[in-house]
Every structure is written in structure tokens, then in C-alpha cells.
Amino acid sequence: MAVRKKARKAKAKTKAASRKVVKLKSKKPAARAKTGNGLPRPSTKSYGQDGKALTGVRILDFTHVQSGPTCTQLLAWLGADVIKVERPGVGDITRGQLVDVKGADSLYFTMLNHNKRSITIDSKHPQGKRVLDELIKVCDVLVENFAPGALDRMGLTWDHIHKLNPRMIVASVKGFGPGPYEDCKVYENVAQCAGGSASTTGFREGPPLVTGAQIGDSGTGLHLALGIVSALYQRNRTGRGQKVLAAMQDGVLNLCRVKLRDQQRIEKGPLTEYSQYGEGIPFGSAVPRAGNDSGGGQPGWILKCKGWETDPDAYIYFITQAPVWEEICELIGEPTWKTDPEYATPRARLPKLKAIFARIEQWTMTKTKFEVMEICNKVDIPVGPILSMKEIAEEPSLRKTGTVVEVDHPTRGKYLTVGNPIKMSDSISDVKRSPLLGEHTDEILSEVLKFSSKDIGEIKNSGALSAPKKEEKAA
Ligand code: COA
Q: What is the C-alpha separation between 93 and 147, in angstroms, rounded?
């Protein structure tokens, strides 16, 4: 009897606790005690125990594919409540792209939409518009990366949004900023090409190359996230929202800043750190592709290591940094190069870089990339092993820091993802699985928007939140 009583008590306690959690979810953080100069007093809670950087910020997430979702995932990791609006029945198109587990959301989707809630709304349905207007009133930021004009066509113009909520920040990713291409739809590689990355990537004698890093999509998402948190900060002072635009061409160009630097240098003379200079090949009028030359003033190249014949990633990036030239000469067995005027100075070495790297490679080919890493780092020579995705996925130190995380998902099971790469001592990110399509529709209608059950019934019966029936679709 006593045991049953105890169990009942425990059950009641858990119920109360879960009610408490629900209540906390929709609550803004409590105002803090102020110091004499009006600033909040430092928290007395332990680091990591006083909410997150963006606790209390609510995002109306209209993003899809990669660029926008990268941005809102970062904001979610930083503590924002991200409400992802998806088209009923379909959702973000990436849910069904590159599917590896039949019937489950793709890794493309799951790896870009952690820590978010999903609500399905037909934004063109009158009842859908009603729900969206209510969401606009209770959110701080609307983020979107539709094709140009799509948001306006939904009726969600800046004027409409601002009438409902003057504090709203409206943040957009577009392919291009204002100009001749502003109406174009843009994907990752288009941005890499238009932003100057492709023309400066690859080998001189080969065609332009796109990179594996998603600098157009994820890079622009990052830029947008910075714009959003800055706009939130400015709003604290001005009380009003603003538009934030990150164009993918601009984002890529920002990441290719050193190449625009070189464009101006080339007009004044040859780019002496490019191996093309050492090989005596004249420069044209635009920055050429530089293969694996390092972008800075310290020459570098990718060299073969032991096992390269069978392992496509048995390579190391080797930098002949001037202050450690003597150590390099010792390691590779060329001690006379330390004092030989033909090799002793960076300027003397420039025309011979190809031959010098060939000599260093004779040495690196006798070691594995990890052995080269260990030997070189002992004497401060900067080198970087070419790590395969398999090696990165299995690297224990990345698991330990939460940069590579294993997540469980109800329909796909366990999978690996990249966690928040930004580590903050008082805002610690946990990685929660991506939401199922419309998983939080009811919760958002009742808890966030406080719709009555009668209203919820009316909205649902209108068809604004569900996929059109097959016959209607066909008609
Ligand atoms: N309810 C009803 N309609 C919805 C909806 C919803 N919840 N969500 C989206 N839609 C509609 C849009 O209103 C739009 O309709 P419209 O053209 O009649 O106005 C339509 O879906 C398609 O949107 P769109 O953005 O044009 O998608 P797309 O698949 O044709 O194009 C991109 C995809 C990425 C090329 C395009 O969105 C784009 O250029 N975005 C900006 C740049 C960008 O972010 N690119 C990188 C993507 S990783």
C-alpha cells in the first residue's frame, strides 16, 4: 500500500514538473536586478546554468534547403525558440532529397534543422494567413530564403509585418543583392561561381572548380545569423526592427577577400608567392587559380605521404614558414640549405619552390601523415594532415567537444551530425533531433498563440494546416 502511495506521489510530481517545463517554454526570461548604473547584476548561477545567449528570442523560420536553415539552426543552438513553418504535406523540400533510409527524413534535412519546432501552414490559405499574422505578433525575427518576391506574394510585405509588429526583424538570404541579377534563383555553386571562388580555385591549367565547403549556402547563413543578432542588439536601443539581407554572392566574395586583394596587387606586378611566379609563367590581367599555394605570405603545398599509392587522402599540407626553415632543412636532410645563399632566405627560395617542395616530399613519402604531423609539430613546423570524412567521423576529440555528435531519430535511428561549432562558456548547446513534419503544430497553436480549442478546430477544418486531399490536388 505504502509503495503504491509512493508511486502515486512520484507520478504526481513528474506531472507537475512537466507542466512546469511547458510553462517555462513560453515565458520570457525574468527581469534581473539592476546595479547602480542600470546594468543587470552578474548572475549568481554557475556558468552554463543561466539559460542561453538567445533565451527569450523567438524566430519565425520560413527557411528551406540549406542557407536559411543553417542560420536558424545556429540561432536555435544559441537558445532561440525556432518555429519552422512548412508547407502542409510536403515540408522543406530537403526532407525528401538524397534519401538514404526509406520513409525517414533525409540526412540533408535532419543535419540542418536540429533544435527547431515544426508547424505546417499553407501560407496562401486565409486561415493560414490568420495563423501567420498571430505568429508575427509574438516573434522577434522572421527569417526567409525564398526566391525573390515570394514573401511579398504571400502577402507578407515589410509594411504588413511592421504594422503587426514594429519590433520584428525581417532577415533574408537572396542569391544576389540589388542589381542586374537580383531576381535570379541561386544555389550553392552558382554563388561560388558568381562570388569569385570558382575562378580562383583549382589548378592554373584546369577549369574553374567549386569547393566542397558550402561557402555559398552555409557561409551566407552564418553571415545572416550575425546580422540578426546585431539587429536584435540594436533593437534594444531603438525599439524597432529592421531588414537584414545577406546575398550569397556578397557572402562568398567576403570569404574570397584575399583574392580581391591579389587582384589589386597584380596590377602593380607579379604575385611572387604564387608558384606560377617561380615557374616563370607570366600573369594575365585577373587573379589566376593557384592550385594548393597558400593564400598568405608563407609558401605551402600538399605533399604525398606514405601510402599515397592506395589511399587517396595520404597527403599533408606543408608550410615552409621562414622562422622554421632551419628545422625543415635538418628534418629533410639538407643541412647546407640553412646557410647556402641560394636557399637561406625566403626571397632566394621563391623561384625554386617547386623543387624545394619536391625535396620535402621525398621525406614526407617515408612517413604517414600522422607521423609527419607529430615530428613537425615538435619543432613548430605548421603542417595539416588531409583528413578524410571517415577519419573526422571517427575522431574521438571531435566527439568529446560535441563538434561531431550522435543523435537518435524516431524514424531513422542513430546518425552523426556536426554540433554547434561555436563554444560558449555560459551558453552551452545541446543537439536535439530535427522535428518531424508538423510535429509541433498543436503545441504552437495552443501554447504559443493561445488559440482556443474552438479556434483550433475551425482552423484545422479549413484545411489550412493539412495537405490537400488527393482528389483536390488532381482537380
Ligand atoms: N505555403 C504555401 N506556399 C508556400 C509555402 C507554404 N508554407 N512555403 C513556400 N511556398 C511557396 C512560395 O510562396 C513560392 O510560391 P510562388 O512562387 O507562387 O510565390 C513557392 O513555394 C516556391 O518558393 P521558391 O523559393 O521559389 O522555391 P524554389 O524551390 O522554386 O526555389 C531556391 C528554391 C533556393 C532556388 C529559391 O528559394 C532561392 O533562390 N532562394 C534564395 C537564395 C537561396 O537561399 N538559395 C540557396 C538555397 S540553399
A: 14
